[in-house]
From TrEMBL:
GO molecular function: DNA binding
PANTHER family assigned to the protein according to its UniProt record, in alphabetical order: BLL4672 PROTEIN-RELATED, BLL5781 PROTEIN
InterPro entries according to UniProt: Cro/C1-type_HTH (IPR001387), Lambda_DNA-bd_dom_sf (IPR010982), MLTR_LBD (IPR041413)
Pfam family, one: HTH_31
Protein name (database record): Transcriptional regulator
Domain HTH cro/C1-type: 8-62
Length: 259
């Protein structure tokens, strides 16, 4: 009972909701909600699900709350290489290839581990003077970027891009404990970055990278995620496409394909 009480109260406070606001959203009386949070009443499964729906709880948070209350979890967490995830892998492959040879793309899980990538990303690594083989082993994008001497040093707008990436990861970590733990691990080694220039006007993340031959490659990033996932692994996945923003970058990637 105590574990469920803490879970509900913690989720509500994290979303800056008062008991009254949550009770109105969920159709549960404020008095009953107060009794649930203080342990004087036990929430039935339907009531608990209604409260979690009203808070927009993630699939992981839903499972944790249900388990803490003594109920079976509602959502599975299958490995991406599990046989039943074959249709998902095929869909991801199609997304990775959909934008053509000049568009690097990768699939990230909730902790920013690179779980899939297309040939365009390997070509980009080659242009940057990095070994494409680095994609063959476990690779965490946040570690790769924020490590001392990491990928961030290839960014023309290093301070600005690091601020943007870190802010996005922090927002996502509010509901992802494992990502929050990774950020806590990386935080002591961060540089005192300050935005070197104001954000651009595009509603996407735009950035520039220095190629090994001195050329500047320009991209903007677009993310795709599954809209109504019922699996925890699937809910955490996002496909990131790096679209070239000028002909120089597009031609460099196409030329790298023919080499």
């Amino acid at each position: 009972m105590r574990r469920m009480t803490a879970t509900l109260a913690t989720l509500r406070r994290a979303r800056r909701l008062s008991q009254l606001e949550l009770s109105l959203r969920a159709g549960v009386s404020q008095r009953h909600l107060s009794c649930i949070e203080t342990g004087r009443a036990r929430a039935g499964r339907e009531t608990l699900v209604a409260l979690l729906d009203a808070m927009g709880a993630t699939l992981t948070e839903r499972n944790q709350a249900l388990l803490a209350a003594g109920y079976a979890p509602a959502h599975a967490e299958r490995a991406l290489d599990a046989p039943e995830m074959a249709p998902v892998r095929r869909a991801l492959e199609q997304l990775l290839q959909a934008s053509g040879a000049a568009t690097p793309a990768l699939v990230l899980d909730g902790e920013y581990n690179v779980v899939m990538a297309n040939a365009g990303l390997s070509r980009l690594l080659g242009l940057l003077g990095l070994p494409p083989q680095m994609l063959q082993g476990p690779m965490n994008l946040l570690r790769a970027v924020f490590a001392p001497g990491g990928l961030r040093t290839l960014c023309v707008d290093e301070a600005w891009l690091c601020n943007e990436m870190w802010a996005r990861a922090v927002r996502e970590s509010e509901h992802l404990p494992r990502l929050r733990a990774l950020l806590d691990e990386l935080r002591p080694g961060l540089q005192p970055w300050f935005a070197a220039e104001p954000a651009g006007q595009l509603p996407v993340l735009a950035f520039r990278l220095r190629a090994a031959d001195g050329r500047v490659l320009s991209f903007f990033s677009a993310l795709t995620s599954f809209g109504t996932p019922l699996d925890i692994t699937l809910a955490s996945l996002k496909v990131e496409h790096l679209f070239p923003t000028d002909d120089l970058t597009r031609q460099a990637l196409l030329a790298a394909e023919s080499d």
